[in-house]
Amino acid sequence: MNEIKPPKKPLIYYYGIAFVLLILFNSLIMPFAEKHQIEEVSYNTFIQKTEDKDIGSVKIEDNEITFTDKDKSHVYRTGEMNDPDLVKRLAASGADFKNIPARQASPIENFFLNWILPILILWGIGSYVSGKMMNRMGGNAMTFGKANAKVYVKSKDGGITFADVAGEDEAKESLSEIVNYLHDPKKYQEIGASMPKGILLVGPPGTGKTMLAKAVAGESHVPFFAMSGSEFVEMFVGLGASKVRDLFKQAKEKAPCIVFIDEIDAIGEKRSNQIGGNDEREQTLNQLLTEMDGFESNNGVVILAATNRPEALDPALTRPGRFDRRVPVELPDLKGREAILKVHAKKVKMDEDIDFNKIARMSSGASGAELANIINEGALRAVRENRQTVTQSDLEESIEVVIAGYQKKNAILTDKEKWTVAYHEIGHALVAAKQTNSAPVQKITIIPRTSGALGYTMQVEEGNHYLYTKEELENKIATCTGGRAAEEVVFGSISTGAANDIEQATKMARAMVTRYGMSDDFDMVALESVNNRYLGGDTSLICSAQTQTQIDKLVVTIVKKEHEKAKKILTDNREKLDELAKFLYERETITGEEFMNILEK
Ligand code: ADP
After folding, report:
1. Is the C-beta atom of 209 inside 6 A of ligand 1?
2. How does DSSP assign 372-428, residue by residue?
């Protein structure tokens, strides 16, 4: 896709400026320059020159006399004197002389210089200053209320197509209907079917929503108008609405085409009836609703919008007839991740024997954008180390960089701290391994990272996991507490290193009670609702204060039970714990294979 830039200022604008400059040059600079070639002399010199007959032509003006010498090589000027013999003397000298009456500027010239020119200058300064101010406010002095959408048309090399978007097969399938429609709207019109007017792409950030929208345009060879929801939000009430009007006007002119509004929640958020609500945003939303009602569903304008907060959208926007189709764009699964890695790997020089499946398994939970970043970090690492191609270890290291940050080169842990971190990380892994009897981790390192993590455990994911049983969740909680449990078992003291584990264990235990109905006390009663599924998933309680107290107690009981279990596992396997921690302390890294070898020895 090639972006089409909006037209620049009209030519007349530049002609106007050039004209004003020319006038200024003529009326101010030229006379000044001319005067500087003329030599000022006294009246005596003038008389002397006439008497010597060393004089060529003479111009007598209002109050000055300009003359040349005989061979006209020099020009002189002197003031006019009340000299009655002047004419006689000049005639005797043989000069060629004339009297030039003072030039009167024409009324038009006077009008131009006294009125038009100052106005033009002031207007120029004014528009320059206000242009600067508008730019600072994010707009442009000349384009009040214009949409300024980025317009893309299909480029010769084809632009983005569905082939560039890896995985996301369900989303592509949904969208390919739109592509078919844009190719041949008649087929649909004949049977009386109308296309959805708006399609909402929902999913977590970086999963390829923008890419999919571009791919729809690329596949259907139609223009693509892209704008972000926040670009509509203006300081003055009504401006956003006029931008919406302008966008739809442009789109209708270019139909069939695709209008893409990214982050639509910026304007589409639920309207509130609070006093002092956001008038500008609500007007913009109203205008969008009106525009979507206003065009026929068969006129060839398809609106795609993307958001990570579908639940925050105004119901009027998501009702049938507006954004009536919702296409989920979820985080990629194992197969999807592998495909995305391969798509991005095509752009860099890779070793032949890269195991993409392994990389995909190591990066569970990563979004498409993060996977693209992993490949790029790998390439950067290869360049840093002066290699021509990217290797498997580049990619493995860059997963850690993307997830945990760079290695902190100068962080110095004391010996005691290093032992603590080693035991802590092995504690997690050992508890996990003893519960499932399989390799729980891909790799553990205790090299401090810039994210602040002192150790880092990379989990493996053998396949996709959609359901967890109660026992599995309990085991996970036990694994989380394993780090702290190891510190207790080995050192008899505890450190601050477990903050993140505590948070995770509590979250899981809480969800078991409030959302998954896994406690005897509350059975299958929902006590919490999830607000923001795609952005971290924060929750709010929907129960009485007494129930909250009871929930808290249950959560504590669950975590305590699992903590005790973890401590027991570690005490029972104390020898292995010591051996593994020593290995990790000495080498700073242990792979899943090495871990299992020591454990099963
Ligand atoms: P979103 O709009 O969902 O936040 P984008 O579409 O802007 O995400 O994706 C950001 C980047 O992530 C893309 O430019 C692309 O490099 C990469 N990406 C995300 N998903 C995919 C995918 N399914 N296939 C290939 N690349 C992807």
Report:
1. yes
2. HHHHHHHHHHHHHTT-SSB-HHHHHHHHHHHHH--B-TT----HHHHHHHHHHHHHH
